[in-house]
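Predicting holo structure, coenzyme A bound.
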Amino acid sequence: MTRLAPALIPLDAVDPAMVEQLLDRAFGTGRRARTAYKVRGDAEALPALSFAMVDEDELLVATIQAWPVALTDKAGRAHPLIMVGPVAVLPERQGEGFGSALMLAQAQALGPQAPLPQVLIGDAPYYGRFGFSDEHTGGWTLPGPWEPTRLLVRCTNPAILPQEGSLGPWKNG
Ligand SMILES: CC(C)(COP(=O)(O)OP(=O)(O)OC[C@H]1O[C@@H](n2cnc3c(N)ncnc32)[C@H](O)[C@@H]1OP(=O)(O)O)[C@@H](O)C(=O)NCCC(=O)NCCS
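Done. C-alpha cells:
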C-alpha cells in the first residue's frame, strides 16, 4: 500500500498536549529553561505562522511556531519582530525534509515582503539556507545565556534593524 506524505495543517488544529509531547521529544524536558522561552515570555503563538505536519495515522511528526517579540533599542523604543521556532521533528523522522517543509510554509505565509524581521536562536548551517544570518545581531542582548553565532535574523531591509538592542517579550499597551 502506498503511504501518503504527511499533511501540512495549521498548528491550531492540533491538540496542544501533543505539541508539548513532540517538543519534549525533540528538545528534552528541560527545554523551558532555554533563553528562547524567556524571549517570548507568555505570548501566544501566532496562528497564521504556526504549522504542523501530521501523517496518515494522525501522528504529529513536526511543528513550527512563531511569536511576537520586541527588540528594545538604546532609546527605549520597542521594535516588533517575529520570533521563529521551535522547529521540531520527531527524532525518528528527522532528515526527511519536514523541517525544511515547515520553514518554507512559514516563509510563504510571511510573503516575499514580510512586514517584520524574523529572529531565531538556532544553528546557522541549517537556518542559513532559509535566509537567516548572524550578520546584524552582534549588538543585541537576550534575557539569558546565548551563543552569538546562533542568534540569527532574516529581514528584507536590514537597514531598519537597530544595531544595538535587547530582545524580549512583546508587551501590549
Ligand atoms: C533541526 C531540525 C528542525 C531539522 O529538521 P529535519 O526535518 O530533520 O531536516 P530536513 O530534512 O528538513 O533537512 C535535512 C538537512 O538539514 C541538515 N541539518 C539538520 N539539522 C541540522 C543542524 N542542526 N545543523 C546543520 N544542518 C542540519 C541535514 O544535514 C540535512 O542536510 P542536506 O539537505 O544537505 O542533506 C530537526 O532535525 C529537529 O527537530 N531536531 C531536533 C531539535 C534540534 O536539534 N534543534 C536544533 C536546531 S537549531
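The chain has one domain: 7-169.
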